[in-house]
Design a protein that fits this description.
The complex is a heterodimer of chains A (about 625) and B (about 80). With about 625 residues, chain A is of the alpha/beta class. Chain A is built from 28 helices and ten strands. Chain A has two domains: about 260 residues, P-loop containing nucleotide triphosphate hydrolases (Rossmann fold); about 350 residues, no CATH class. In chain A, about 65% of the residues lie in helices and about 10% in strands. The longest helix of chain A has about 40 residues. Chain A is elongated. Chain B starts with 10 loop residues before the first strand and ends with a strand. By secondary structure, chain B is of the alpha+beta class. In chain B, strand 2 and strand 3 form a beta hairpin. Chain B is built from two helices and five strands. Chain B has one domain: SH3 type barrels. Classes of the chains: A alpha/beta (about 625), B alpha+beta (about 80).
Chain lengths: ~625, ~80
């Protein structure tokens, strides 16, 4: 049996899912789309059932890819029972989705979630009466505290087995009149929707569904047009708005019957936005919170990274020792393998894991949408929206979670631009290069200068890109969820699934790349590699030998510093590089081509083309920025 | 009057939305439909978005969108 969870964003659906899901839960995509769902096997009454967490949708109007897929999935044979999660503290809006679900004629159970929150707001709901009106079982629960979950799933199991379908909602005479004419005409149509539900969607003018039906029965097109005209004539508005209003009115009348509003308790949470979104203090706190976030992640990451790196380095030395310093292909490949493995374990994971946990906390508390609210006006000046700031900020730690975080942006254009820009944000590894080279030899002020220059270039690129790729969405429309204390389970599950994605998909490629570079090394083609990069190193006034560290730097950004020492034959950089060369090299390293792990994630999230675009674009920007820097540096030094 | 000009703390009723279908859909999804009452909670500085309350939920709206929502003062 399969149970589908559906609900509006912020209704606590994912919290509910995480309460029952095991660590083996799988995230998947609907065929041919980027719409994701998560599925887990759950033991229930001696049976094993599949529970599917569908993307949160406000309606089933099919106005975005998620809604289209959800409605197809819900009405397919794959789902035996639908669990509709409702936020009891915001019942009216939630019920409009429930009414749409009732139209679909699927076995339905209502999970009335966040009863504690409703209670705090002084809301009393007559559950029995709600159940009676909807014709589907209603189970009150508090997902975050694990209350009511067992009864909910037991009920869902029973309803799924008995295949009990609630009655369809009835609308005004005008709409019903039209539906009675339209529905019989659809008898022979093959669709995932049944007669009446199909008629409603047609009347609403859902483009995909209309096209599908007209392809099967062309005569319906003119019937439909005249019926839509009838509706427009009767009410003065198009049918989709009329139906929407009817659903909304129905939701209102249900709420009026089952809900009693008592006295609400004002708590700190209601005042929190006054502080966190304050025109002045809001920004001060934003900086403080992000600083704290970075400090925590960075120090935790460093704490784990250092001993792990030591371990791998001594292991590598030990292996080399065993083979008596032999430079045979086998040894080289083996060392490449170890470096690939250590690159994942010791460099990416120590930062990725605390980052994803931290991100999960910020997400579940409800702070991220507030960041978008605060930063929207600044981001607008760059041609972007407030939400794009999130991947940006994350990029300072590691670009991999930054690319993953672009998922919160719905618009493809925004995702692409944000991904491109966040790869230009100097991650912790590139920080090491800037610090090791510039701050160490030329002083922290110059390093700070490089950082400011970086921000300037990113802003410039943002403006250029947003001009080149035309704007599609006109502005921010974003619900601010109520602040909540995140549950350990939700946060850790989410972090774990994202880490597993990296381990399964990006890491193997990192290892392969590492081995390929080891073979290059064995074949001693350093001289050719340097030759390949020579036009660039010449233009930037850098020594010939920087070719190899730059190419290997794509594998892991810190290699562009470590291997620079090897290539130049001295770790005392002030003796082999001039200050101008150090600055130019650092600027180039900060901007050029994202590291392999990042590229793999870009390919997965945005496709192969986007990956090559971004690689090319950043290399171009790096060259221009480094040339500019060289010019300026020559004037100063 | 436009929603954009509604002073903070004032409650108004949505009359209509003038603009593209895509945004119209999005507003409808969030329950911002004609006839609904909304109140303005706060305004981000420097031309930032405004935050409104509808049925106890808080929603951030960019100024470009708020400029296209026609409202009337509720008596």
């Amino acid at each position: 049996m399969r149970i589908g969870l559906i609900g509006q964003p912020n209704c606590g659906k994912s919290t509910l899912f995480n309460q029952v899901a095991g660590y083996k839960a799988e995230t998947g995509n609907f065929v041919g789309t980027t719409v994701t769902y998560t599925e887990s096997k759950v033991r229930l009454l001696g049976d094993v059932v599949d529970v599917v967490d569908l993307p949160g949708t406000y309606t089933l109007a099919g106005s975005n890819p998620a809604e289209k897929e959800v409605i197809k999935y819900l009405t397919s044979k794959d789902v035996d029972v639908v669990v509709n999660v409702l936020d009891a503290s915001h019942l009216t809006h939630g019920l409009s989705l429930t009414i749409e679900l009732l139209e679909l004629e699927v076995p339905l159970v209502i999970a009335l979630n966040m009863m504690d929150e409703a209670d705090r707001l002084g809301i009393r709901i007559d559950v029995n009466q709600l159940e009676e009106i909807l014709g589907a079982p209603v189970i009150p629960m508090i997902a975050s505290k694990g209350r009511g979950i067992q009864p909910l799933f037991v009920k869902a199991y029973q309803i799924g087995q008995s295949n009990r379908i609630p009655e369809q909602p009835q609308y005004s005479e005008a709409i019903e009149g039209i539906l009675t004419v339209l529905t019989p005409k659809l008898e022979n149509i093959q669709s995932h929707l049944r007669g009446r539900a199909l008629a409603i969607k047609l009347l609403e003018g859902d483009k995909d569904i209309v096209d599908d039906v007209v392809a099967q029965a062309p005569e319906i097109e003119s019937d439909l047009k005249s019926l839509q005209k009838v509706s427009k004539h009767q009410s003065g508005r198009s049918a989709e708005w009329v139906i929407d209003e009817e659903r909304s009115n129905k939701a209102h009348s249900i709420v009026n019957r089952v809900l009693q509003q008592g006295k609400r308790r004002i708590s700190l949470r209601d005042r929190l936005d006054d502080i966190l979104l304050h025109p002045f203090w809001g920004y001060v706190l934003l900086i403080a919170i992000l600083y704290l976030f970075f400090q925590l992640v960075y120090s935790l990451g460093g704490l784990i990274e250092a001993p792990l790196m030591d371990l791998f380095n001594s292991f590598e030395a030990w292996i080399t020792g065993i083979f008596g310093g032999s430079q045979s292909l086998l040894v080289q490949v083996f060392i490449g393998l170890i470096q690939g493995i250590s690159g994942g374990i010791a460099i990416v994971l120590p930062y990725l894991a605390p980052f994803l946990i931290g991100l999960g906390v910020l997400e579940d508390v409800g702070y991220l949408p507030r960041v978008a609210f605060l930063m929207d006006s600044l981001m607008h000046k760059l041609g972007l929206h407030g939400k794009s700031i999130v991947p940006f900020i994350l990029g300072f730690g590691c670009n991999v979670p930054a690319i993953m975080a672009t998922r919160i942006l719905e618009d493809k254009r925004e995702r692409y631009i944000s991904a491109a820009l966040s790869t230009m944000v100097p991650c912790a590894a590139r920080l090491a290069v800037v610090f090791g080279l510039v701050a160490y030899y030329l002083g922290p002020v110059v390093a700070l200068g490089i950082y400011l220059f970086n921000l300037f270039v990113i802003a410039l690129t943002a403006m250029l890109l947003s001009k080149l790729v035309p704007e599609t969405s006109p502005g921010l429309i974003l619900e601010m969820p109520v602040y909540r204390i995140p549950t350990l389970r939700t946060v850790s599950n989410k972090a774990w699934w994202r880490i597993r994605e990296f381990v399964v998909e990006a890491w193997p490629l990192l290892i392969v790349g590492s081995i390929v570079l080891a073979i290059f090394n064995y074949l001693n083609i350093a001289i050719y590699l340097n030759g390949l990069v020579r036009p660039l190193s010449w233009a930037l006034g850098l020594p010939n030998e920087v070719g190899v560290p730059l190419i290997f730097g794509v594998l892991r950004k810190e290699l562009s510093l470590v291997m620079l020492g090897q290539a130049l034959g001295s770790m005392e950089f002030s003796q082999v590089l001039s200050p101008i060369q150090m600055i130019t090299y650092s600027v180039f390293v900060v901007f050029y081509m994202p590291c392999m792990a990042t590229m793999v994630v870009i390919r997965k999230e945005l496709g192969r083309r986007a990956m090559w675009h971004i690689a090319g674009l950043t290399t171009l920007i790096a060259t221009l920025a480094a040339l500019f820097t060289r010019g300026i540096a020559e004037l100063i030094f | 009057m436009r929603l954009l000009e509604t002073p903070i703390g004032k409650t108004v009723r949505i009359v209509e939305y003038k603009g593209g279908k895509g945004v119209g859909h999005k507003l409808r999804q969030l329950g911002l439909t004609p006839g609904k009452e909304v109140s303005v909670l706060r305004q981000a500085p420097m031309g930032g978005p405004m935050m409104i309350d509808i049925e106890g939920r808080s929603i951030a709206l960019g100024r470009g969108i708020a400029a296209r929502v026609q409202v009337e003062i509720d008596y």
